[in-house]
Structure formats: C-alpha cells, structure tokens
Amino acid sequence: MTYKHTKTLDRSKDFILPCRKDQLDAIKDFLPIDKPDFDGSFSTYQLLYGSTGNRIYLLGLGEEKHSVQLENTFQKVAFETKKYWDKTIQVYAEDLNEDEIRKAVIGLEMAQYEIGEFKSKKEKSKHTSVTFASNKSIKKILDEGKYTGETINKIKALVDAPPNIKTPEFLGNWSEKSSKEANYKCTVLKHKQLEKQGFDAVLSVGKGSVNKPVVIINEYNGKSSKKVDIALVGKGITFDSGGLSIKPSTNLHYMKSDMGGAAVVLGVVELVAKLKLKINIVGIVCSAENAVDAESYRPGDVINSYSGKTIEIIDTDAEGRLVLADGLSYAVKKIKPEYLIDLATLTGSVVRTLGYYAAGMFTNNENMAKTTSDLGYKVHERVWPLPMFEDYESDLHSDVADIRNFSGNPLAGATNAAKFLEAFTEDHKNWMHLDIAGVSFGSSPYAKMKSASGYGIQLITEFIKSKASK
C-alpha cells in the first residue's frame, strides 16, 4: 500500500469514516442517511452507499480505552473488505490525533499480510493507495506507520516460515539483505568464526543439525559517538525438537516459531534504521536448530560458554537459554551497552502463568520495568513483572559445573530460566529479559491455524524512541 495526505475529503469517492462509540453526531454531515444501524462499538463496521454509489465504511473506534488497540479495527475492516476496494480509498482523519493516525496506518498495512506464501496457487495482491484527509501535517506519521506495519508483516513472515526454509543461514541472509536496504551494518558469524571466538553454547545446541548455527550482529549508529545505547539479544532457534530430551509430537510442527525473539530483534533494528532515530543500537541473534543426531549434545554433558562459565546440561530442551547466554555474554564483554534487553520464546511456564495476554518481564531495574510496562499499555503489547529473588538461585546449583541449565523443579520455570540468564549478564544494572512465549505465536482471526502475532516490534521500538536523542 501507499499512503498519501490531502486536506479535503472527496465525498464522491470511497472512504472510511471512523467514529467513537455513541458519537455519530460528530460525523452526521458525512452520512447519506439519518440513522444508520451503527453505534461505533470497537472493531465493528457498516457499509453505506453515498449519492454517487460510492462506498462509505463506518468504522467503530469504541471507547477511549480502545485507543491503544486502534490498529486492530483498521486491520479488520481492511482485511475483510479490501477485495471490494478500487485502486484508491480515503480515510477521514480530521478527528484522529497523530498517534491514532499512525495506528490506523499500521492496521491497514498489517491487513496486507499473506500467510499462504508457500501455496502453489496464490491470489494476486492488489495495490491500493490510501489517502488520509486531515488539515494536520501528517506526512512523517504516515511514513512511520507504514514502516512499522511493513516490519511487523516481515517478522510475522519469518516466524510463520517452515523450518526447512528458515534455517540459521536463512536468517543470516535475510539480515544481510535487510542491512543493505535499510542502511545498517550486518555481520554474520559462521561455524569456524563461532569456534574461534568461543560461542561454545551456541555450537553445542546446533551440533545435532546439518544446518549449522550462526550469530548475527546488526549495528545501527544514529549518533556520532561510539557508545552503544541499547543492545538487543534474540533467541533464534529455527526449529526445536527438544534435542535428545525430545518433545512430544503433539504441536511439534509449531516449534518453527521458536525464533520469535530473534525475529523481533531483526525487525526492530531494520525499523529503527528506517526511522533514522538518533541512537546507537546493536542487535544480536544467536541462531541454531535443536535437532536429534548422533552428534547431539546430551543430558549430563558439561559444555563451555562464551562467558567462560561451564554449564551442566540437565535437559537439552532448555536450549534457548544456552544460546542467549552466549549472546548476553558477548553483549556485556564486547558491546558494553547502557541498556541490555533479551527476548525469547523461552518457557511454557510463562504461558501457564500469564496466558496469552502479556509477556513475562524480568529485571531488577525498577525504572526500566516501569518504562516498559507503561509503553506496553500504550501499544497494547503488555508485559507483567515476575520475581527475580535470590532464593531461586539454589535451583541452578551444579556439583560438576558452574551452573546447570535446568532445575527439574516443575514450579517457577520462567523465573529459573531468567535467573540462569542473569548469571551471564555480569550484574548489568540495566538488563531486562522478556519471555514472549505466550504472545509471539498463537490463535488469530486471520488464520485457521496458530500463527505469528508480530508482538514486540512496537514495544521495543517505543522503548528505543524513549531513549533516543531528540
């Protein structure tokens, strides 16, 4: 889609007419009838016809509390009606503020996502030009919304891609292409370089696969200084069989989504580069396929890590924290960022704790926690704080190594994973771990099977914007 700005709405052409609940009086001058059967409830719409036969889509914005989800109602109306649109459609945006206009564009763009990329027969997508009618100067907002929506669609396509296509090397190639398009630096470390630099935990996880692991390092410098403001670390397990601690076959096909954290990191760096924010960030993706083979690492093994700490393997299905451990250690030792955030589809425990409505947030930094929580409500990508008490550390004691990767305790699994990661942060004061297992991938009104949600792009980008130079 392309997005344009005009100051005057052409009432003879098709247009979308947003309306708050029970506030039809605000748009009555645009209505072809006095009393449509429509009250503006959230995520509802009604089609009317104007005097020239043009389509008028009344779109319900709901109450003030629904403003944070505004993209959802635009996504729904576009997804369900775009096949009837001509090459152009208008949006009456005079009564929308800048944040609402940005969300409207994000929603319209998200409606363009086609999940059936690998079908042999696909419907041809139709290019539509959307014109926003407003007296405000909104060109920059339209661009930001378009870039954000496009990025969400791109990471959803990554998460939904089949694992025979989406190998660690594929993620590296994706990132290299993205870096050229968005103008940031990308370095992909492959097997020999990983051995040379000491990414032993990443290598151990990937030992059982023919698709060798990679570590992707993306650098965007929006300021002249060399100091890195924020480093992001993403778990990039392109398929998780569980290794020798093999998972049950039920829903195993969904384990293609175990690189949801990596997808967020890749997408955010690209988006920040396109927005040209005045900030320096580094995105680190540690990617491997956790497969089963004669060379697979075993329960009972003791492996090394980038940090120098030795790790006793209790469960090979607790592999995400291993690759993240190397990524966090690399960030702390080499990048030395002011803020450090990792994202991962890490535990089923966090899903049992929070369901599908919030990510688990782990940090000892109260200011960082409050900022992230507030931003989560703003963009409707919510987080919820979970404890990081020292009491949990005893669960990770090992008699034969510095630490073990799994407690075996059926309780507090998400916190135990977070405490494991904390051991590789060198007590970084501004570190946060987000367990996005319940929100990255799940049921959707736009697919019959579980699919990617796009969670995290807006949340992390807003956090970065809050730290960027004005």
3D architecture notes:
With 470 residues, the chain is an alpha/beta fold. It folds into two domains: 2-133, Leucine Aminopeptidase, subunit E, domain 1 (3-Layer(aba) Sandwich); 148-467, 3-Layer(aba) Sandwich (Aminopeptidase). It is built from twelve helices and 19 strands. It has helices at residues 70-81, 98-110, 139-160, 168-182, 191-197, 200-206, 260-275, 320-335, 348-354, 366-379, 413-422, 457-467, and strands at residues 2-6, 15-20, 45-49, 55-62, 88-92, 129-133, 185-189, 214-221, 230-240, 280-290, 302-303, 311-312, 339-344, 359-362, 383-385, 403-404, 431-435, 441-444, 447-452. The strands form four sheets. Strands 7-8-10-9-13-17-14-15 form an eight-stranded mixed β-sheet, sandwiched between helices. A hairpin with a 7-residue loop joins β11 and β12. α3 runs antiparallel to α7, α4 runs parallel beside α7 (260-275) and α6 (200-206) packs antiparallel against α8. The chain is elongated and about 80 Å long. It starts with a strand and ends with a helix. It is found in: Cytoplasm. Its cofactor is Mn(2+). Its main location: cytoplasm. The active site is at residues 247, 321. Keywords: Aminopeptidase, Cytoplasm, Hydrolase, Manganese, Metal-binding, Protease.
